[in-house]
């Protein structure tokens, strides 16, 4: 046990725990005034958030102890379970929350299947691409359509909910893993061209829901509907801008206490940081995310096998894309998509999936070392021996 603790990536651990700790304070600040106004317990959301983090840490520890190489056996089953969860959303078990039919309610337990689907897709793509590159001959032409089909199934089910934000994260995972796998450039160029044409076709033929179109319109010009879909973006910028350099102090934000920003404990939690902690506090959050992503990329590069490298790459793309989009929408440089800020926003399904992913990152990191601490053999070290047709 002691050798394992010594070999953990402690920079990654500190970055994640730092984000969880800051997030807990921000969630507390964003919810206490509302709870007091409603006559409820001002600490209720904080307690639930801390309990979710504790459960997530336990699951992360389990992921550390579970050798990631065994995912070659259990990964396909996990992918099928994730797809089944997305299908259940489309049954009477599904519930609509905040305009998105993305939840399953079983008794008092609420689950958003798109969150574990992100982790399952990372594992599934890494398995597929690593197995198809098991020999020195590299990838054949079938691997690209197979990878796209593996990603298209959960993306399509999420789009039916509709949840454009989560679908975009899944698409970013697919694109990132394919790039990390070093597929031939002509394949990637063709894929990018097809994606651009597909996006244009979706907009051209009106395949988006009206509220999604409204969000995109409000992003281009929030003044078009300041009391409607543009309200969130405008209030978010007001809250962040009012914080100045050092902020107004925790629990002293007027925008936060007045509940001017909707969903401030979930999707717009970064506005609490901007208003109450100021530029310096928000900068610390960005620094912690930079450390998290740097460690994820370093783990991918140092992995002893292609499967571990692609798994870490997919997780890095997931966290990186979702972080940029969430913070971007609070600053008005990205459309409002309803994506939470990893490790910071309030939410059970997302927090558990995020911490499990960190556990797998640590597992890949530990796989770099042998029992004695020396580097293990690297028969197919990431991209070192790959040959492509």
What's the pLDDT, averaged over the residues? Answer: 83
Strand percent estimate: under 5%
By helix and strand content, what is the structural category?
mainly alpha
Work out the radius of gyration: 21 Å
The shape, in one word, is globular
- Which residues form runs of ≥5 with pLDDT under 50? 371-389
Task: Reconstruct the topology from this structure.
Blueprint: H1 2-7, H2 10-37, H3 44-65, H4 71-89, E1 94-97, E2 100-106, E3 109-111, H5 114-132, H6 143-159, H7 164-180, H8 185-204, H9 210-220, H10 231-242, H11 254-257, H12 269-302, H13 306-331, H14 348-366
Antiparallel strand pairs: 1-2, 2-3
Helix pairs in contact: 2-3, 2-12, 3-14, 4-5, 4-6, 5-6, 5-7, 5-13, 5-14, 6-7, 7-13, 10-12, 12-13, 12-14, 13-14
What does this structure look like?
The structure is a single chain. The chain is mostly helical and 389 residues long. 65% of the residues lie in helices and 4% in strands. The protein is built from 14 helices and 3 strands. Strands 1-2-3 form a 3-stranded antiparallel sheet, with helices on one face. Strand 1 and strand 2 form a beta hairpin. The radius of gyration is 21 Å and the shape is globular.
